[in-house]
Amino acid sequence: MDKDLLWQQFRQNKSQELRHQLVLSYLWLVKHLAGRLAVRLPACISQEDLESCGVFGLIEAVDKFDPDMGRDFESYAYARVRGAMLDEVRRANWIPRTMWHKLQLLKATREKLERKHHQAVTNEAVAREMGVSTAEINRLDNHFQRIYTLSLDEMVTASGGETLRLGDLIPDPASPDPLDKVAEDDNQRLLAQAVAAMSEKDQLVLSLYYRERLTMKEIGLVIGVTESRVCQLHSRALNRLRQKLKEMEETK
């Protein structure tokens, strides 16, 4: 459908379907901006993360755009989408700019040497290449480690408003998996009933991971979300499966 006609209909009827069509028709803008900003992204942010933030900015732009203001939508959305992406970069990239440039140089130098020698290189070799002391390389490496320091008690919000503890997303090797427990008890029927009672999205994530043996990243490509989002969905699905199995055991 022509975009002008879409906008005309959307202004008359703010339906979710028309809103969805408008967002899809301007997704190219999100990908274009994410591709430009991804060139100098901090290591803790992926281009997929930028695109996710950009989509939220695009949705907000569609909802708030007023053609009577005399601006075309693409110019208006460009600022909104780019702003949403930059907000995410600023939120995640908390280190000073000068330190960030040093870390980028360290990363680029190490990658160049590893490509040249086809193996991991020592800090001494990196220091010689950069013309600094080994102690300085060690100090920069420590900053790299600090970038990834997270609290396991940090709460993250999933879709639907459900809140998960970050530590709950990390598998506990000492804790028996509910799937393994049911298999060991030779009670596949109970498992099938529990899975069948779950939502289609939960069933899909569990099936792709345990039956199709896909990785989290591969599952993300299949269902169109980031790898970190798949981890959240997987953790939530397992928690729900545990609860359903517990309820079914109690009613036996």
Automatic annotation (TrEMBL):
Highest rank taxon of the organism: Bacteria
InterPro entries named in the record: RNA_pol_sigma-70_dom, RNA_pol_sigma70, RNA_pol_sigma70_r2, RNA_pol_sigma70_r4, RNA_pol_sigma_FliA_WhiG, RNA_pol_sigma_r2, RNA_pol_sigma_r3/r4-like
Molecular-function GO terms, alphabetical: DNA binding; DNA-directed RNA polymerase activity; sigma factor activity
A biological process from GO: DNA-templated transcription initiation
Every RNA polymerase sigma-70 domain range: 215-241
Record keyword tRNA processing present: no
UniProt keyword list: Cell projection, Cilium, DNA-binding, Flagellum, Sigma factor, Transcription, Transcription regulation
Protein name: Flagellar biosynthesis protein FliA
